[in-house]
């Protein structure tokens, strides 16, 4: 339990991240620069974490290869980095189900005013399909992740 109150290892100063790799089953996100592992983050996912996102409202985190395509310093969840979901295949799949694919999939911190929860948010998957980290972690990711960085999300 003490683990939840100890500070996390910080990303090395001046780091840039050009690739993120997520393993949903491990609740881990690996940050790389030119193939060199810089840091591993423990994450929370969508409330229904098993399987690829099929449509809006399924509370699943997508699986596949995407990019970081947006940045929001004024998010309702501290800050966020946008993930390029849905791609063309995601749109086709959702259309085949007669549903919208959804969107606004982000890497984000905790809801504004709830930063005190800190690492305790990791006890369960709670997002609508996003990837959640602590506020200090999204602060460092926001600074270090380069525009267009690749993100690979695996089961």
How many domains comprise the coordinates? 1
Looking at the structure, what is the overall shape? globular
The top level CATH class name: Mainly Beta
- Major beta sheet summary: 8 strands, mixed
Strand order of the largest sheet: 3-2-1-8-4-5-6-7
**Could you say which structural class the secondary elements and strand pairing correspond to?**
mainly beta
Written overview of the protein:
By secondary structure, the protein is mainly beta. It has a single domain, classed as L,D-transpeptidase catalytic domain-like (Beta Barrel), CATH 2.40.440. The chain has 2 helices and 8 strands; from the N terminus they run E-E-E-E-E-H-E-E-H-E. It has helices at 88-96, 135-144; strands at residues 17-23, 28-33, 36-42, 64-75, 78-83, 106-108, 131-132, 145-154. The chain has an 8-stranded mixed beta sheet with strand order 3-2-1-8-4-5-6-7, covered by helices on one side. A hairpin with a 2-residue loop joins strand 2 and strand 3 (36-42). The protein is globular and about 45 Å long. The protein starts with 16 loop residues before the first strand and ends with a strand. The model has no long low-confidence stretch (mean pLDDT 93).
Properties at a glance:
155 residues, mainly beta, L,D-transpeptidase catalytic domain-like, 2 helices, 8 strands
Strand and helix layout:
Elements: E1 17-23, E2 28-33, E3 36-42, E4 64-75, E5 78-83, H1 88-96, E6 106-108, E7 131-132, H2 135-144, E8 145-154
Parallel strand pairs: 1-8, 6-7
Antiparallel strand pairs: 1-2, 2-3, 4-5, 4-8, 5-6
